[in-house]
Amino acid sequence: MKIKSKEQIIEHFISGNKPNQFIGVENEKFLLKKKNNERAEYSDLLKIFNFFTSKFNWQPIKEDENIIGLRKNGKIITLEPGNQIELSGSQLSNIHEVCSESYEFQKKLNIACENFDLKTLSVGFDPFSNIDKIPNNPKKRYKIMTKEMPKNGSLSLEMMYQTAGTQINIDYKMRKILKKNLNLHLI
């Protein structure tokens, strides 16, 4: 499609408007064994998942017969390639709700970890583990990514297995912003 006007571009963005504004956060953490700071194995994460299922009523997400995550009330807990654990939070109205959700999850994760001699580490890069010693999990896509990603980036495996980050997702009503900032008459 050939772009003929600024309004055509603006209408393209407006067509993606959501009915409500929301904010959501994805937050990854490392799980380490308390006794030696080694990364948690998949079997350790299964204990955490089973604890969340039995104590906090989360529902398992499976790939074949393997539990690869949990879900509850719009939130999802997933495994990352090096057994980092990620909370993908609910769609919330403001940053205060996001903080509350994050603190509540951390509190429950700490309780679970305490039962299995694990601890969490919330940093961007794992300072303890060598890449060749990091355990993995049975998620099929990570096996493919581990093989394919190094073909296009020399540090891709380090990014997959040795990092944990936070991502914020914001949806908003574009129409209000465009109208205010561009002083346009929009229907």
What is the makeup of the main sheet?
Answer: 7 strands, antiparallel
Q: Helical stretch count? A: 6
Work out the helicity level: 25-40%
Backbone structural class: alpha+beta
The number of strands is: 7
Q: Calculate the mean pLDDT score and round it.
A: 87
- Report how far the terminal alpha carbons are from each other: 23 Å
* CATH architecture call: 2-Layer Sandwich
Unreliable runs: none
At the first level of CATH, the class is: Alpha Beta
Specify the overall morphology.
globular
- What value does the Rg take, in angstroms? 20 Å
Instruction: Please indicate the count of domains.
Output: 1
- Our estimate of the beta-strand percent is 15-25%
Which fold name corresponds to the CATH topology?
Answer: Creatine Kinase, Chain A, domain 2
Give helix and strand order, one letter per element, not per position: HEHEEEEHEHHEH
Write the layout of secondary structure elements.
Elements (H helix, E strand, L loop, with lengths): L5 H9 L7 E12 L8 H15 L2 E5 L2 E7 L2 E5 L5 E4 L6 H21 L2 E4 L18 H9 L7 H7 L3 E6 L2 H9 L5
Helix pairs in contact: 2-3
